[in-house]
């Protein structure tokens, strides 16, 4: 590799260095093109699914019976066509990011892309070959973060259900106000309805703030996680190694593998809220 070439340059041919450097450039360009194609495919699929769901909900709303209309309010139908359909579109890209099975299916359909979940396992496997058992110390940090992630996912789902319930109620009242605006003006009920809508909106804002704080904490934890994994892995390797230090080849290769880990660990906290909202 390039590190070995620089360490033993006197015994290496000069053209080997140019070949290695050009190879790195070509691989980086190819990786960028494949990732862009991957996002294009996933976002296009999400838009098509969203349009199909909106059309299905709209068609169903026009044909439901009067009894069904009593159970499904206008606010719920509007939420389905606007908010929920958008969540499905957003979650489509997240599913592509976290599901290696779907990525492999797309690969066999001649859509070349890489799943961060698959990249995660491959990077850990190569780290084992580079750092040995010391890489398991970094993996232990990831395992310790899993309960935190599970708790955050549970709370986000609860907040999402609470927010949608409050939002349905607010849209229902707004629809009643708009349909009966003449009666409302006639009896001077503006302040009463305004106060009621404001109270519901304040409850919705409280739920949104809780969700935002939870997402911020989750993002912070998973942003710091790659650096903690590196610190623990390198510290364990140095402590367990006979030489007591990191040689350049091991250090640079490990940094490259850890950079591969950064992407799935960055996308994971962003993908989880989208998947929770769809489920």
From TrEMBL:
Signal sequence segment: none
Domain of life: Eukaryota
Record field: transmembrane: 15-37, 102-128, 134-154, 211-229, 249-276
A Gene Ontology term for the protein's cellular component: membrane
GO MF annotation list: ABC-type transporter activity; ATP binding
Keyword ATP-binding found: yes
InterPro entries: ABC1_TM_dom, ABC1_TM_sf, ABC_transporter_C-like
Residue ranges occupied by any ABC transmembrane type-1 domain in the UniProt entry: 1-277
Pfam families: ABC_membrane
Keyword Nucleotidyltransferase: no
Key words of the record: ATP-binding, Membrane, Nucleotide-binding, Transmembrane, Transmembrane helix, Transport
Cross-referenced CDD domains: ABC_6TM_MRP1_2_3_6_D1_like (cd18595)
UniProt cross-references to SUPFAM superfamilies, sorted A to Z: ABC transporter transmembrane region
Entry-linked PANTHER family: ATP-BINDING CASSETTE SUB-FAMILY C, PTHR24223:SF454
Protein name according to UniProt: ABC transmembrane type-1 domain-containing protein
The species this protein was found in: Candidula unifasciata
Lineage per the UniProt record: Eukaryota, Metazoa, Spiralia, Lophotrochozoa, Mollusca
